[in-house]
Amino acid sequence: MIPEADALRAESECFNKLLEKNEEHFGMITQFKSWSINDVVQHIHYFNALADHAIFDRAAFETEYGALNALRAGGSSLVRATDVRLSHLTGDRLRAEWLARATAISARWSDLDPSIRAVWAGREMSVRSLITSRLMETWAHAQAVYDILGVDRISRDRIKGIAALGVSTFGWSFRVRKMEVPAIVPHVALTSPSGEIWRWGPQSHSEIISGSAEAFCQVVTQVRNIRDVRLNVVGDVAQTWMEKAQCFAGAPQDSPPPGTRFRI
Where are its TM segments located (predicted)? Predict the structure, then answer.
């Protein structure tokens, strides 16, 4: 059983309720790389499909991912290439197709053996990690939509998988920047949306990150700068990590500058 698959379904349904009420705003430009709301939904939808191929049909994954990369090699941006591969799917039809696929793949993924391996972004990982990454991307990219529409988000304890991913990518956040991984791993103590305390790492008095689990998830997914959230960060290693945290694969990415990602 993979609980993150059920969390993805629930998170997708929650995001869908926001989108259903705002179909007329799909052309609105968000604070994330000047993507429109339509671009955000396309991105989530397309990469959900790619992940499903990566798990169940390696040949289909390689064909589709190759087609996307060929467009990018030809000068297309990721947004433009995704739009082409989705045949310019927009608006309510895009929303409906994204939700239907997200619901279907969540059900398909739920009963998988979590130790099965899949190749994603040039590296092999467990399907549980891949599914958690889809939960993370859905949650993180949706934040840009909540922000631009001026809607306060209510997170649930299903973000625990995202927090755990953030913790597990401590070393990656340094390695992707060709930095030495610190020998000291900070203790992480987060308050969940329901009030439970989630803990990771060895007990420490000198290297600690504590506070809201939602804020921690916002930082490790790079939807907020560490200076724009209320987290208690103690120690040089903890501070450096939070400044450079990156829980997703690919090339190194910088957090948004302070004050540039916020609810309108």
Answer: none
